[in-house]
Design goal:
Helix content: 40-55%
Number of strands: 20
CATH superfamily of the largest domain: P-loop containing nucleotide triphosphate hydrolases
CATH topology of the largest domain: Rossmann fold
Strand content: 15-25%
Shape: globular
Strand order of the largest sheet: 5-6-7-3-8-9
Number of domains: 3
Number of helices: 19
């Protein structure tokens, strides 16, 4: 006997004064379904989920929910206003004897329920909302971007909880690893139509691409048929006017069908330009640390970042990722040690808080009143990597329409704000990108395009992310912040880091010596630095010690020459000096590159 649906939408139509978001949409969710809802930003995923939750009334159609069925909804931006603490919010819908459920979920999510709601971070609020939803234990859970603002530990805990639940759930997420583990079927919302694939999410992209190919083929065949029928109408209709009126009507129907076909939107035009090449050594950090009172955020830590590296920083929320990033980029002074930046750096920052965007400014003003983009005041153009572009045309590259150009930033969705911030960053030349949670709110297709843009980027990337799939695709080095100030450097992305950790644990276990009755010998003192360099000759050791000062001198000279040549008047008033300075700059850049290469070679030899 067939099981009754847990939720059914029939003939659903909804619009907001313009073209409908969807029209005549049908959808069924069965008990035990584990569904991913995917689609582009702005396609209506969150709107559809709110209709399922009963928060939006459709213009037409029906929402059928069996009597006694409960639905829980995780909003992207829940209202904490009436509540003093996160615990007050999380337990608001529960009876007095049920609060233990919230406490159990809070323990798994590492959440302090006593935190004041008005002081809580985005991650803490997301944990409280999840604890509330899981404690309610509804028959159907609707989760809108549940992994946003969560660290990887919390994401993995949530994965485990959802994999054990007997409830049905529907999840919107950009996190491929999360969807691959949980989703048994995928709903694809595309141009107002929902298609269902009853296979795991890992098959989605192949299925989507195959659907698009079939769509393109059908459109091509229809275009050819219309062309042939139109030719017949011109050349042959006069001799058989009466008996061929049906064929004329069929031609009209074909044209109407073709007109009703909604062509899918193209992808965002994401492109990065590294501009002038930076020095080979981008960042050299030696024993930097940071503490706040008795709490050590970063214990003495050293890291060398070379041109072209993609360095990811991972770890629990509050472990110090942003603090370390700010010390490495010179925004925050370390308590000990030193972080030296290389020469010729042009830094662009993607901030997870979107602080660079004024919520009251329009999209137009966000691009035309930014001194960093070389524009200010009223203008209809923006400089895009040195080339003037009309504002509306450039916004269309990032999937904004003309009507949105004059809308305020606060009206944008999270994904649209992320695309606008990318538009600002990608308009500039940069050779060092600092990306703090760039994947939040972006759809899967835009993430693919961002990954492609980063792959083609010749500059250096510093990245903070909790998206494991994105880390695997982008990172060449991963710095794991373990808590209590500890940070460890691994080669590769997230999966590489996990493999190296597991291998290290296996080696440690297999090589652990058996306990001895005799007392352990006292530890040998650490040898002096010069003893570590025994692989070098006396001349090489002396050269290695002298090179840092030589590199610093060359960097200072390059900076002065670059500053002199940055004045465009120099070329008009003193062309001979400009030419001489340009030659000197090229010479010193070559010397710097050679010195850095020599230092790296000697350092590696000394380490060996």
């Amino acid at each position: 006997m067939a099981t009754a649906p847990i939720l059914q939408l029939s003939g659903l139509t909804l619009g907001f004064g313009g073209a409908p978001v969807f029209s005549g949409l049908d959808l069924v969710i069965q008990p035990g379904d584990r569904l991913a809802l995917v689609g582009r930003n702005g396609s209506g995923k969150s709107t559809l989920m709110k209709v399922m939750a009963g928060l939006f009334e459709p213009d037409a159609g029906a929402r059928v929910l069996p009597e006694g069925t409960t639905v829980g909804y995780l909003d992207q931006d829940p209202d904490f206003g009436p509540f003093d603490t996160l615990g007050d919010f999380a337990t608001a819908t529960l009876g007095p004897g049920e609060t233990w459920r919230v406490e159990a979920a809070a323990e798994g999510l590492d959440l302090d329920l006593s935190i004041r709601a008005d002081k809580a971070s985005g991650g803490e609020k997301r944990r409280a909302a999840l604890a509330r939803l899981l404690a309610e234990a509804p028959d159907l859970m609707l989760l809108d971007e549940p992994t946003n603002h969560l660290d990887i530990v919390a994401i993995e805990w949530l994965e485990a909880e959802l994999s054990r639940t007997k409830a049905a759930f529907l999840v919107i997420s950009h996190d491929r690893a999360f969807l691959r583990r949980l989703a048994r079927a995928t709903l694809w919302l595309d141009r107002g139509v929902v298609r269902r694939m009853d296979r795991s999410f890992e098959h989605f992209e192949d299925w989507r691409d195959r659907t698009w190919e079939e769509e393109d083929l059908a459109r091509h065949k229809l275009d050819r048929k219309i062309k042939a029928e139109a030719r017949w109408a011109v050349e042959g209709i006069s001799a058989r006017r009466k008996r061929n009126q049906g064929r004329v009507r069929e031609l009209q129907n074909l044209r109407q069908t073709r007109a009703e076909m909604i062509r899918r939107a193209g992808g965002a035009a994401l492109a990065l330009d590294a501009g002038a090449q930076s020095g080979k050594r981008v960042i050299e950090a030696r024993d930097i640390s940071k503490s706040y009172g008795d709490r050590t955020v970063i214990a003495p830590f050293s890291l060398r970042v070379l041109r072209g590296d993609r360095v990811a920083f991972v770890g629990p929320n509050g472990a110090g990722k942003t603090t370390l990033l700010k010390m490495l980029t010179g925004q925050l002074a370390p308590d000990t040690g030193k972080a030296d930046l290389g020469t010729g750096l042009e830094i662009a920052v993607f901030d997870q808080s979107r602080a660079a965007l004024d919520p009251e400014a329009t999209l137009w003003d966000s691009l035309t009143q930014d001194p960093a983009l070389g524009v200010s005041g009223r203008s209809d153009q923006v400089m895009v990597r040195g080339t003037p572009r009309h504002v509306v045309g450039y916004l269309k590259d990032f999937l904004f329409d003309e009507a949105q150009a004059r809308a305020p930033v606060r009206a944008l969705s999270g994904g649209e704000k992320a695309r606008l911030l990318l538009a600002r960053i990608m308009a500039r030349h940069s050779n060092l990108l600092v990306l703090d949670e760039p994947t939040n709110d972006l759809d899967v297709e835009t993430l693919d395009l961002l990954q492609d843009a980063l792959a083609a980027y010749e500059g250096t990337v510093l990245l903070v992310s909790h998206d494991r799939d994105f880390l695997d695709r982008v990172a060449t080095v991963t710095v794991a912040l373990e808590g209590e100030g500890r940070a460890t450097v691994y080669a590769g992305g997230w999966s590489d880091m996990q493999a190296q950790r597991n291998a290290g644990a296996d080696i440690e276990t297999s090589e652990k010596p058996a306990p001895k009755k005799a007392p352990a010998a006292p530890a040998r003192p650490t040898p002096p630095a010069k003893a570590v360099r025994k692989g070098l000759s006396f001349t090489e050791a002396h050269r290695l010690e002298a090179l840092p000062a030589e590199i610093a001198r060359l960097e200072a000279e390059i900076a002065k020459l670059a500053e002199f040549l940055s004045d465009p008047q120099v070329y008009a008033t003193a062309p001979a000096k400009a030419e001489k300075a340009g030659a000197a700059l090229a010479e010193r850049q070559a010397l710097l590159s050679a010195a850095e290469e020599e230092w790296l070679t000697l350092e590696e030899k000394a380490g060996a």
